[in-house]
């Protein structure tokens, strides 16, 4: 098993590239699973880690963990108060809008009550089409198949927000078994060697929990999405692993 790709680490937090298909931690929905990101990361760095936010199991990309409960609490507050900037890349069906704000309230999905009984909560996602491709194959009822590369910036943090918003707008993410279209999912899995949800968290910017310095993390794509981008002529949009931040120093008050 390959080690996890650690994007950034200091004495207070660690950021890692979560592989697609890996659950973050144990839950009631994870019966029978034996591999979890939290345990793998803990074993790899030899320190206890505390989750701060979530990524769906099939989504890959950058995740940050606190290395203490105190650091995790401050980071979590930043996420809940929308002080964190997040960007995702998604491959969707059709030619997506050049730029648009998707403002559709979403019912929460907590698994304890029918979704129809849950309140509809405000949800907003900004999307931008970065590129598109037209393939000379009939996948559905049209003689050609069109797909787009979309950058999504969620302004709120509802469960499955990007997946649900893009599907509702008519541009479902490829590989989304719940909100997508199976004929396109099968085409990508069988013909393009891309059998996963084509959604990746590629950028995260947040204030350090103890120094207040801004940390900007960029995360490269995994081999599946990278190969697909190269096939589609989208290599110019491939993100790279990078960290941008001023020098971080522990405040004197924390050194006592």
TrEMBL record:
Q: Sorted alphabetically, which InterPro entries does this protein's record hold? A: PsdUridine_synth_cat_dom_sf, PsdUridine_synth_RluA-like_CS, PsdUridine_synth_RsuA/RluA, RluA_PseudoU_synthase
* Chain segments annotated as transmembrane: none
Which Gene Ontology molecular function entries are recorded, alphabetically?
A: RNA binding; tRNA pseudouridine(65) synthase activity
Q: Pseudouridine synthase RsuA/RluA-like domain spans which residues?
A: 12-167
Q: Which reaction does it catalyse?
A: uridine(65) in tRNA = pseudouridine(65) in tRNA
Q: Which principal EC class is assigned to this enzyme?
A: isomerase
Q: Name one GO biological process term.
A: enzyme-directed rRNA pseudouridine synthesis
Cite the SUPFAM superfamilies for this sequence.
Pseudouridine synthase
Q: What is its EC number?
A: 5.4.99.26
What this protein is reported to do is described as: Responsible for synthesis of pseudouridine from uracil-65 in transfer RNAs.
- Give the protein name, as stated in the record: tRNA pseudouridine synthase C
Q: Which organism is it from?
A: Vreelandella alkaliphila
Organism lineage reads as: Bacteria, Pseudomonadati, Pseudomonadota, Gammaproteobacteria, Oceanospirillales
